[in-house]
Amino acid sequence: MSQQSRNDGFDEDPPSAQDIALGILLGTESLPQLMELHYYANEPGLLEIARALAALPDGAREQLREFLAASQHGIEIRREGSRLVIATVPR
After folding, report:
1. Do the Cβ atoms of 88 and 74 come closer than 8 Å?
2. What angle do the packed helices 31-41 and 46-55 form, to 10 degrees?
3. Most buried residue, 28, 39, 57, 62, by most Cβ within 10 Å?
4. What would the 3-class secondary structure string for the chain be?
5. Which residues contact 47 (CB under 8 A, 6 or more apart)?
6. Diameter of the chain measured on Cα atoms
């Protein structure tokens, strides 16, 4: 009889949504941080942007970082009623 590995069944039994939610709750440092995560996760399009940035090759991500750092303008994000407004501001 073969000995069962600790990793046996991992691929067939991925973490449940409850496991993931519990991990997020336990890893959050404060209620305001948890609320902020929830707010950003529900912002239309934000997760798609984050996924696209995370999927960039390292070289392209570094070029984007350098381009943004060289800009003489920053960005300001604010809410106006139900709209999210992103504007450039001088540094």
Report:
1. yes
2. 90
3. 28
4. CCCCCCCCCCCCCCCCHHHHHHHHHHHCCCHHHHHHHHHHHCCCCHHHHHHHHHHCCHHHHHHHHHHHHHCCEEEEEEEECCEEEEEEEEC
5. 41
6. 70
Most confident of 6-15, 31-40, 54-63: 54-63
Hey, what amino acid is at 91? R
Q: What is the C-alpha separation between 62 and 60, in angstroms, rounded?
A: 5
Distance CA 51, CA 65 (A): 16
Which of these, 90, 59, 87, 50, lies nearest to 73 by C-alpha position?
90
